[in-house]
Amino acid sequence: MSLLITLGLSQAVVPEAFFLPGTHFDSVHVLTSAGTKAEMLVEFFATHAPGVRWTLTRAEDFVDLTSEEDHFRFEEVLLRWILEMEPDAERRHVCLAGGYKTISSSAQRAAAALGAAEVFHVLADSYLPGKDGKPRSPSTLAEVIEARDTHRLHFVRLGGEPGWPQLRRLSAATYPLQVRVGEGGVRWVRASNEELRHHLKGIVEQSQHIAASWSDMADLPFAELATWPGAALKWLGSPVDPEEDADWIAGLPKVELHCHLGGFATGGDALERIRMAACDPGRLPPIRPMEMPEDWPLPQKPVGLERYRQLGDNNGSALLRDPGCLKAQCRELYRHFVGQRIAYAEVRCSPANYATAERSPWEVLQDIRETFEDEMQSAEQAGQWMCHVNLIIIGTRQSMGDYRAGISRHLSLAVTAAEHGRDGKRCRVVGVDLAGYEDRSTRAHYFREEFVAIHRCGLALTVHAGENDDAEGIWRAVFDLNARRIGHALSLQDSRELSASMADRGIAVEMCPYANLQIQGFDIGAGPGREGRYPLMDYLQQGIRVTVNTDNIGISGASLTDNLLLAARLCRELTRRDVLQLQRNALDAAFVTPDVRRGLLVRLAEELTPPGAHGRRG
Asked: What's the pTM?
């Protein structure tokens, strides 16, 4: 066992502490100031404890306690000294008897934070005659031995300290002391800063914040928010300012659940880069002149679904059939995710639509997977921001023709991919999306038999519903097709009973503010109960697991940050805390394994910091 003790003016305290009943110390470490005497210690260990290893360490920049600054400098040395002298908390016995009262207090706090087998105090009877005629306690080595033999030493044993879990990985290597060795092997030490003391102070403050937030913790999007000060939580509870909070939202870690691969890079420089990567440029379709609607991307009037889709014609299946263009599209999209600080994304794709006579849908899917996988590995190896990407296979409804056969081919590919999803790669096919033309003749229940295999194989299902159809289309997707998520669900607000059922079941809604406004049209800033109001805030307040996404980044001309900022303009009562709740909802609704979800939760929580910690980045 190791004895760690600070030394003030009375050298006797060290041998007194050494006689702690029932404890055999094989090492003793003494920390003191620059000017204290230590002759008694040399004599004691030479004559009474010759086999015990002992060290004397002096704080180089601490002569006497004359100010608060002196105390804090010594406390920093004390903390680092404990880590260095005895790394094993189960061997530490910390004595509080030596030095100023403030130093004893620091020793007790250090033991509580870093851990100790025992914390104790030693008392010696005042029974010896003093020069002033008053009794005094032992001051010489002989007197200490006599006090021990006559049972005049008393110990106050305060028990052990488990230490704070947050500090269990600390070591002297993390917070080293600057050491020089003087005469007689005395170690002189100093700390270059007060980093460790400030670290402990921060943990104490966080603990106090947690206590203050205890009753509200269950309602916080992330439990780590309970460590924030009250002023920061109050700031979170205020409505988003789309201009003031743009940088904060841009810096947030995010989750993207509804993003179409083919809807990215539909024009401009991005499209040009995709085309330049072509393996066979001569077979690329020509670029069609594209007249954008007036005031795009925030048109005064909605353009409808068909016009919206046409805006993506320059980046459709004809372009992505070229392997070079397809891989470039994946790389560009991945780097967009990184720039948006997206930690997890599910990308929707239609590999069968990109297949040719030379390349099967399976080969196309493998190209998509491997490109995203390579980007993820490169980012991780370089220590850069890494976005975990998974894939969702799209089955497209149409208004005419034998589109069921096409859907069956997409579903077969998804099932095969699911069976090959145990190859160690992180980029996996995790679900299927029933998308495309939506009306009463293409509601989800018509495809019940086709989707049985999807559920049998453990794949998740999301369904575009309630965007162009009424609430019945959502009902059919939820109760006939067992959808875990619903894309858009704009008409869900028309059915109070269905809304309550979806909230109870935890079925998520994937809303895409820019696409929703562009296709359907909503009034910016319309209050509760007003016609034309965007329903996102109402869904949140009803307990529905709402998420915000992009849909088609290139067509809509909007990133995930843009969509979150537009959500705040559409729903002016949306708070910063709601923005965090949207990210937590997306994480909870993601089609991932529990282990991956836990890892992402830790990662998102670690990236959240109170306003002002890094500028205003969250």
From this structure: 0.81
Residue 30 near residue 57 (C-beta atoms within 8 A): yes
Q: Tokens standing for 275?
A: 């085309």
> Which DSSP symbol is given to 252?
S
User: 409: buried, middle or exposed (CB in 10 Å: 19+, 13-18, 0-12)?
Assistant: middle
Neighbour count for residue 273 (Cβ, 10 Å): 15
**Radius of gyration of the CA atoms of the chain, in A:** 34
Pull the structure tokens for residue 427: 């980029």
> What is the C-alpha to C-alpha distance for residues 205 and 228, in angstroms, rounded to an integer?
9
Question: Count H helices, E strands: the chain?
Answer: 23, 18
Parallel/antiparallel/unpaired status of strands 27-32 and 388-397: unpaired
Report residue 5: phi and psi, to 5°.
-145, 140
Angle at 255 between CA 510 and CA 616, to 5 degrees: 120
Q: State pLDDT tens for residues 33-83.
A: 887 888 899 899 999 989 899 999 988 877 777 788 888 888 999 999 999
Structural domains present in the chain: 2-199 (3.40.50.10770), 246-607 (3.20.20.140)
Quick one: angle between helices 68-85 and 195-212, nearest 10? Answer: 100
CB 550 within 8 A of CB 306: no
**Which residue has tokens 């030596």?**
98
User: Strand locations in 33-131, DSSP E?
Assistant: 53-59, 92-95, 118-124, 128-129
With beta carbons less than 8 A apart as the criterion, state whether 302 and 295 touch: no
The string of pLDDT tens digits covering residues 256-276 is 999 999 999 999 999 999 999
One-letter-per-residue 3-state SS of 485-529: EEEECHHHHHCHHHHHHHHHHCCEEEECHHHHHHHCCCCCCCCCC
Buried-state track 369-402, b at ≥16 Cβ within 10 A, e below 16 = bebbbebbeebeeeeebbbbbbbbbbbbbeeeee
Q: What is the pLDDT of residue 404?
A: 78
At 163-216, the pLDDT tens digits run 988 888 888 898 999 888 877 778 888 888 888 889 888 888 877 778 777 777
**CA-to-CA distance for 346 and 261, rounded, in angstroms?**
10
Distance, CA of 520 to CA of 522 (rounded, Å): 7
Which residues lie closer than 8 Å to 360 by C-beta, 6 or more apart?
none
> Angle at Cα 21 formed by Cα 16 and Cα 25, nearest 5°?
75
